[in-house]
Specification:
By secondary structure, the chain is mainly α. The protein contains seven helices and no strands.
Amino acid sequence: MTQTADDKPTSPTERPVRRRLGDRLKALLTHGHTPEKIALSVACGIALGLFPIFGTTTLLCIVVALVLKLNHPAIQVANQLMYLVQLPLIVVFIRIGESLLGVAPIPFSATLMAAELRANPSSLVQRFGVAGLHGILGWAVVAPVVMGVAYIVLLPLLRLASRRPQQQPASQPATGA
C-alpha cells in the first residue's frame, strides 16, 4: 500500500522540487507583509506596469515600493507580468490623453516615423515627446481605477490564502498508525 501526504508528513527533501520552489516563491512574495500590503504591492505593480513610457516601469516600482514600504518582489513580479499588456495600451493611453485635451490624434505609422526620423529627427522627438505626455495623462486617468479594482479583487483572495496554512493542520485527522 502506498502512503499519501495525508498519512505522514514529508520531509523537505522528499517533496517535489516544484512544490519546494513554489513554497519559496510564496515566502519571498509574502515575507513580513500583511495581505493588505501584498494586495497594494501587486495593485501598484499592475498600475505602474501599464505606464506608457517604455523602460521606466521598473524604476517607478522601486521608488513606489521604497516610499510606501511595499513588498519589492510582489510589485516587480506584477510589473513584469504587465509587459505584454503595456505595449498595446501605450497607443490607447495616448488616444485618451489626446481626447481629454481635445487635440488631433497623432498618426502612428512605422514607415512615416522612419521617414521623419531620416528627414528631421528633432521634429520626430518633439512630436512623439508630446504624444508621451498625452499618454501619461491618459494613464493617470485610468491607473487609479485599475489599481483600485486590482486591490479590491486581490485583498479577499490574499486574506483567504493567508488563513489557509493555519487551518490545514487542524483539519488533518490524527493518525495512529
